[in-house]
Amino acid sequence: QCCQNVSVLYTLSVYDCVIQLEKEKCMERMAMDDHSSEPELVCQWMWDNLTCWQPAKIGQVIWMPCPELFEVMNEENDEFGKVSRNCTEDGWSEMFPHYVDVCLFNENGTSPVSDMYYVTVKALYTVGYSTSLVSLTTAMVILCRFRKLHCTRNFIHMNLFVSFILRAFSVFIKDGILYAEEESNHCFIHTVECKAVMVFFHYCVLSNYFWLFIEGLYLFTLLVETFFPEKRYFYWYTIIGWGTPTICVAVWAVLRAHFDNIGCWDINDNAAIWWVIKGPVLASIMINFILFIGIIIILVQKLQSPDIGGNESSIYLRLARSTLLLIPLFGIHYTVFAFTPEDISKRERLVFELGLGSFQGFVVAVLYCFLNGEVQSEIKRKWRSWTVNRYFAVDIKHRHPSLASSGVNGGTQLSILSKSSSQIRMSSLQAETPAT
Asked: CA-based, 20 to 30 A from 367: which of 19, 81, 236, 256?
């Protein structure tokens, strides 16, 4: 079963797992059947890799509904046909009609569904998370490197960047553990390492949602409150952003270990246990959407203030730009499928939330680091400083080679030159300033 938002990643593997689970059920029925050795039952139990056929007598026709796999693949089709086999003296006959004719449908209801769609989605989110990982790591280096960028707002951005980085890493680790092989052995992995990977994956995803929520809460509080003790609030933000996911995932892991300890914990059939993680995710999305609406209302009021100035078109242009900038920061795009039933539009959900959502970290890094005016100014200032220092160091070395052997180093020479140039500029400014 594919659960919304967080569990959307599992759709790519659930098909194989459905087949394996159906096969195990068939094997159990075969082992428990005491009538399979009766002479009149010429056709014995048979598993054809999709359907479990029960024993039958000669001339008997067995009708079976389409396998559960096709119900998962074609969630938009409410009715499925049936397939049949005839028991003959030579055993089971060929199936009629074939699975392709009655079980596989596209939008027109005639053609089979191609697995290439899911391979394409997997390739898309792999590229997306890789791009986000590189850009976010670069943004983190920039924000950590320059001290003038160290403030509460950027510290919150940095924690959000870290949550995106961890989310990308967890996706790659999970794919490497579960889907390294083309076979379906991952459906029945019971190792502690595999379960630990799933716990880490859920923690990273949940932390990412909570830091998106904190970004919205911080901006809303900044606009509403006149006196805003940022340092004290940041302490609580850190506890909420990293602590709450820890509690939720720990409770989920304990419940899974005691009541639903099946496989690698990558399929969530127990809805009650899954709500321990799904509930906080939906709550963060809903609250962030409310904060987003509140911030837009505040921005409208501020932009319409006579102190701002400007015509009506410029006001709406600034409002539209502010809204577009807030959407990736708040994760508002998650609300598109957040409260729709999980068995509706699975394909669209995969592309939107998994494919396009994997680029969210890249968009956030670009908007709130690379295109940030404060960051650009600091980089330019450092670049000019490095260029000037390098120029003076080379110039002094060529003009005064004797100084290189003296006790005066390059740093002292530059400080003397800087003081001298500052005194010259001050004297010129005093000379140009009229006496009062």
From this structure: 236
Are residues 82 and 183 both part of a single domain?
A: no
Could you give the C-alpha distances from 130 to 125, 126, 235, in angstroms and in order? 8, 6, 31
DSSP sequence for 372-386: -HHHHHHHHHHHHHH
Where in the sequence is the domain holding 19, given as residue range(s)?
A: 5-102
**281 close to 212: Cβ distance less than 8 angstroms:** no
Q: Which whole-number Å values give the CA distances from 235 to 155, 209, 240, 376, 416, in the listed order?
A: 11, 18, 9, 28, 43
DSSP 225: -
Residue 187 near residue 21 (C-beta atoms within 8 A): yes
pTM of the model: 0.68
393 part of a folded domain: no
The reply to whether 180 and 303 lie within a common domain is: yes
Supply the CATH number for residue 59's domain.
4.10.1240.10
229 and 95 within one domain: no
Structural domain contains residue 421? no
Please tell me the distance from the alpha carbon of residue 33 to that of residue 45, in angstroms, as a whole number: 9
267 is written with which tokens?
A: 């399929």
CA pair distance 71, 382, nearest whole angstrom = 60
| DSSP count for the chain of H helices, then E strands | 15, 5
Task: Please report the sign of the dihedral spanned by the C-alpha atoms of residue 288, residue 290, residue 294, residue 296.
Answer: positive
Report d(CA 415, CA 367) in Å as an integer: 37
Give all strands of the β-sheet with 61-65 in edge-to-edge order: 61-65, 82-88, 91-92
- Model confidence pLDDT, tens digit, residues 1-50: 333 344 444 444 556 667 777 888 888 888 887 665 566 777 888 888 88
Task: Read off the tokens for 181.
Answer: 């092989």
**Mean pLDDT for the chain?**
75
pLDDT tens digits along 233-256:
888 899 999 999 999 999 999 999
Contacts of residue 221, defined as CB under 8 A and 6 or more positions apart, other chains included, come to: 228, 233
Number of structural domains, the chain? 2
Other CB atoms within a 10 A radius of the CB of residue 263 amount to 19
Both tokens of residue 232? 């004290």
Q: Which segments of the chain have a pLDDT < 50?
A: 1-12, 77, 106-114, 182-184, 402-436
